[in-house]
Amino acid sequence: MQLLKNKVMQEGIVLSDNVLKVDSFLNHQMDPVLMKEVGREFSRRFSHEPITKILTIESSGIAPAIMTALELEVPMIFARKHKSLTLRDHILVEKVYSFTKQETNEITVSKKFLSSDDHVLIIDDFLANGEAAFGLARIVEQIGAKVAGIGIVIEKSFQPGGRLLQEAGYQVESLVRIAALDNGCVTFAEEVIS
Ligand code: 5GP
After folding, report:
1. Under a CB-based contact definition with an 8 Å cutoff, are residues 19 and 181 in contact?
2. 6 has binding-site annotation
3. 157 close to 179: Cβ distance less than 8 angstroms
4. pLDDT above 60 (res 194)
5. DSSP characters for 70-91?
6. How far is ligand 1, taken at its centre, from the CA of residue 129, in Å?
7. Which positions are annotated as binding xanthine (predicted)?
8. What is the phi-psi region of residue 149: left when phi exceeds 0, alpha when psi lies from -120 to 50, beta otherwise?
9. 127 Cα to the center of ligand 1, angstroms
10. Which residue from 20, 55, 81, 125 has its CB within 8 A of the most atoms of ligand 1, so it is best to mutate?
11. Which of 24, 38, 50, 126 stands 20 to 30 A from 3 (CA)?
């Protein structure tokens, strides 16, 4: 997605060989016009799927997820990272190792908002090792619902998440793929037009 590539080139800050900071449009300040386009693009790429819900993880997944949900006119749910006081009988829980915080969090979703009939599109801001996306997929599968696909705003394709998710049988659509972050520079991977 060219618009997103331009934004990454203009505003992305390479923090290390494996971390990109995009806090001016996605991770802190958010660009609603860009997010609207992101939502349109995900809805186009998954238009063949009978999606009934969007699932993401707080907090940076929420903007692209809500814009996709708006396009598809379905509800959006975000998994919470912090322990809920709700009775555990009423929640779906999975452990997820956080790439940025380097700690394991329990992510939770209320059973009220997912059912076995759902076709769930998972959306997240970044894909690195795939921990967050796999955790969200396990939440969906725990309740007996179907993962319709996984939409990622920025995939770092030099890390294994994308390959592992595809090997597990999920359709992964990444709007921008980064091949390397060496020497403070962003190198994009070849774009596959779908
Ligand atoms: P994974 O679970 O695939 O290993 O990592 C994805 C999660 O870690 C995303 O939810 C995202 O919040 C965070 N993340 C991974 N890599 C980066 C990065 O380079 N920059 C930022 N800002 N977040 C990242």
Report:
1. yes
2. no
3. yes
4. no
5. HHHT--EEEEBSS--SS-GGGE
6. 8
7. 20, 27, 156
8. left
9. 6
10. 125
11. 50
DSSP type of residue 38? H
Contact yes or no for 100/81 (Cβ under 8 A): no
Q: How far is CA 167 from the centre of its chain?
A: 17
- Which residue has the CA at smallest separation from atom 10 of ligand 1? 126
**Nearest atom (ligand 1) to Cα of 27:** 22
Residue 168 marked ligand-binding: no
| Amino acid, res. 74 | V
The answer to the question of whether 180 is labelled as a binding residue is: no
Query: How do residues 172-184 score in pLDDT, each as one tens digit?
Result: 999 999 999 999 9
Amino acid at 98: S
- Ligand 1 pocket, Cβ-based, cut-off 6 angstroms: 19-21, 27, 57, 60, 99-100, 124-132, 161
Residue position matching structure tokens 């829980």 = 93
The model carries a pTM of 0.96
Residue with the nearest Cα to atom 4 of ligand 1?
129
Residue 85 has pLDDT above 70, yes or no: no
Domains located in the chain, CATH noted: 2-82+91-191 (3.40.50.2020)
3-class secondary structure, 55: strand
**105 labelled binding-site residue:** no
ipTM, 2 dp:
0.99
- How do the residues of the chain divide into helix, strand and coil, expressed in percent and rounded to 5? 30, 30, 35
Cα 50 to ligand 1 centre (Å):
28
